[in-house]
Amino acid sequence: EVQLVESGGALVQAGGSLRLSCVASGFSFDDYAIGWFRQAPGKERERFSCISKKDGAIYYADSVKGRFTVSIDSAKNTVYLQMNSLQPEDTAVYYCAAKDRTEVYCSSLYFYYLGDLMEYWGKGTPVTVSS
């Protein structure tokens, strides 16, 4: 059974940092790409990062580039999202999601995928940044 479990969300002051974890089970990072998404209250879900271990590809949206860093620890079956210089506009529920890497187009320039949705989703972890 494929599972994704996010953790690490918290209340933090502007300028602070958080590290989110996404623990994966039931699949290999060699076969699946991981996407990070966030949804703020009243706003559409934003896809802002992806990582494909097999392809060595990482993408960041302009909204997070230079502040967020995604990485994989295969030994721990975990994807990390290091978030620095957090701002109130980063307040959202953060989700990790997985999809067969052959159906995900993840590069330094773009992140999109076949179909409407990623295949597997975590339940999300909330991040609140106070001003």
Task: Give me a quick take on this structure.
The protein is 0% helix and 53% strand.
Q: How would you portray this structure in words?
A:
The protein is mainly β. The protein is built from no helices and 13 strands. The model has no long low-confidence stretch (mean pLDDT 96).
Question: Topology of this structure?
Answer:
Elements: E1 3-7, E2 11-13, E3 18-25, E4 32-39, E5 46-52, E6 57-60, E7 68-73, E8 78-83, E9 92-100, E10 104-106, E11 111-113, E12 120-121, E13 125-130
Parallel strand pairs: 2-13
Antiparallel strand pairs: 1-3, 3-8, 4-5, 4-9, 5-6, 7-8, 9-12, 9-13, 10-11
Shape: globular
Secondary structure tally: strands: 13
Low-confidence stretches: none
Number of helices, counting only DSSP H or I runs of 4 residues or more = 0
**Oligomeric state:** single chain
Distance between the termini: 40 Å
- Sketch the major β-sheet: 7 strands, mixed
